[in-house]
Specification:
CATH superfamily: Jelly Rolls
Distance between the termini: 17 Å
Structural class: mainly beta
Number of domains: 1
Radius of gyration: 16 Å
Number of helices: 0
Number of strands: 14
Order of helices and strands: EEEEEEEEEEEEEE
CATH class: Mainly Beta
CATH architecture: Sandwich
CATH topology: Jelly Rolls
Largest sheet: 7 strands, mixed
């Protein structure tokens, strides 16, 4: 099965995703494997989408090719992948919807807000933040279906979407680790 490898080169001061800050990896000086924080949207038993704060924790050292110095990697089996870059103009709003595939998103520039159908489930993502979106099985509850995505900044928002061929699940927050 095709896979995607996360590469952790830098060691920073936090392992939690910031939801408005930078994505950071954490490792100790003893050479222990890093952890890498991310957000995951999942569907709960009530049919609504919620955020879970998660960590990638299965890093090991390896080289990505001949002559390349080894670094920390975690391989995620995401199936076949397609990559897209999205640009949301200032003020852009994508109303309530679910995405057609499970996808890993990384904000490259600007500020993008995701509002999920669960109560009080709104996060603003900034450059470097990592988010796995999996709200496909959400139900339409009072007109709130999946999520709304908005550019909440004063510049165009750009984000990378790695779209997988995975089957969406429910009630499995942080299943990617």
């Amino acid at each position: 099965m095709p896979s995607f490898t996360l590469l952790a080169l830098a060691c920073a001061t936090t392992s939690a995703p910031q939801g408005g800050g930078q994505l950071a990896a954490r490792s100790t000086r003893s050479g222990a494997p890093p952890t890498l924080g991310y957000w995951h949207s999942y569907v709960a038993a009530d049919g609504k989408a919620y955020f879970a704060q998660c960590k990638f924790t299965n890093f090991s050292t390896s080289s990505i090719g001949p002559g390349v110095v080894p670094s920390w990697h975690e391989t995620l089996d995401l199936g076949a992948l397609g990559a897209k870059v999205a640009v949301f103009p200032v003020g852009h709003v994508a109303p309530w919807h679910v995405d057609p595939v499970v996808q890993m998103i990384q904000v490259l520039s600007g500020s993008v807000q995701w509002e999920l159908s669960g109560e009080n489930q709104t996060k603003v993502f900034a450059p470097g933040d990592l988010y796995i979106e999996e709200d496909h099985l959400a139900k339409n509850v009072s007109g709130r279906y999946g999520h709304v995505t908005r550019n909440v900044g004063d510049t165009p928002a750009v984000f990378l979407m790695l779209q997988s061929a995975l089957t969406p699940t429910a009630e499995q927050p942080c299943r990617f680790h």
